[in-house]
Known about the structure:
Strand content: under 5%
Largest sheet: none
Distance between the termini: 37 Å
Helix content: over 70%
Shape: globular
Number of helices: 20
Amino acid sequence: MSFIIVMGCIALLILLTTWGKFNTFLAFLLVSILAGILLQLPPDKVIASVQKGMGDTLGSLVIIIMLGAMLGKVVAESGAAQKIAGVLMNAFGPRNVQWALMLTGFIIGIPLYYGVGFVLMVPIIFSVVYQYKLPAIYVGLPMLAALSVTHGFLPPHPSPVALVGQLHANMGLTLLYGILVAIPAIIVAGPVFARFLKQVPSQPLQTFRPSTIEANKLPGTAISFITALLPVFLLMLTTALPYIFSNSTPAVKAALAFVGEPAVVMLIAVLVATFTLGTGMGKPVKVVMDSYADAVKDIAMILLIIAGAGALKQVLSDSGVSNEIAAALRTWPLHPLVLGWLMAAIIRVCVGSATVAGLTTAGIIAPLVVQTNVNPNLMVLSVGAGSLMFSHVNDAGFWMFKEYFNLSIKNTLKTWSVMETIVSIAGLIGVMILSLWI
């Protein structure tokens, strides 16, 4: 009966956000309370459970997500993203323009949230389309595939960061494994798949013709690359240091653990960016700080959605139903990593939001990770891959792609939706291959 109640609550969540057009946070809140009541939690414990879930989830994430938004904002507004794109375009040349844009999307996609990255990168795509007279889909899809993969697989993006927390994974290892899985997925869904789309008609709207920053006002090449990728460098470095200094004193180990905390890593990255791409380029401190305040406003709703997902997870945990479901799922003839991917994929297709799909799945699958001893870092990636499955008409990204590239719904399904599906399946394959050695 408990399993039926949980499935019913998830179905209600889907209906509220799709058919009912409810705000996702409100939908999570209502469904969490209803689930607590139906699962026979004491009335005074239902709200306490909701509050604990929200607090515990945000407590470990809010610093990382906020600082990630600030870093992305300064990378975008300073012109560092434009500089990176220009350098890669010059290095690869017109014949390999797809690969240049794919690499640009991957580098820029790490610090930038998907929506911001999409809006920022589309003018760069269109400038290449107009300059070299190439098909827009052929040129643009590899970059957008890279943005999508970083959004679903890699910290410090909200869903992967939240999954790391809920599944008790390691941020640095998840990032390292995520890059190993992401690269082949992006290549297959980007340059390889796009070669079959040269004949898809697309006339990008003139509204989106690029307005660029003058070249003499852009930051330097080294500063742009180092600042954008600093979180990646630091997370990998701090993940490796404990192994390098395994025989060091307890004080050294404690210092390494402190520096290796993702929140500290992101704080260092933002402070460096504040100077290199902010005050170091002549911007007053107040202007940079105002930009950071705007960045926080941009992601406020994302934080609330994550909090709502945390509330539902805690209700399922406190009622004991998560362990019941995990015990039942253990009997299914599926590998736990495949099961996590499948659950996220089903919710994604129904709800449309990759973040909601990933976080909802994590609340259900977390006990199974403990019971089966599956690698939690790989489960983060498996669920992340599933959360990208078949974007269609209930996903905002689908409509952004359609409108910016001026496509029919049929051609959007043939291009964007298939690309997302390839990314998802390739991601699962990559995770399963890694699981043979890890």
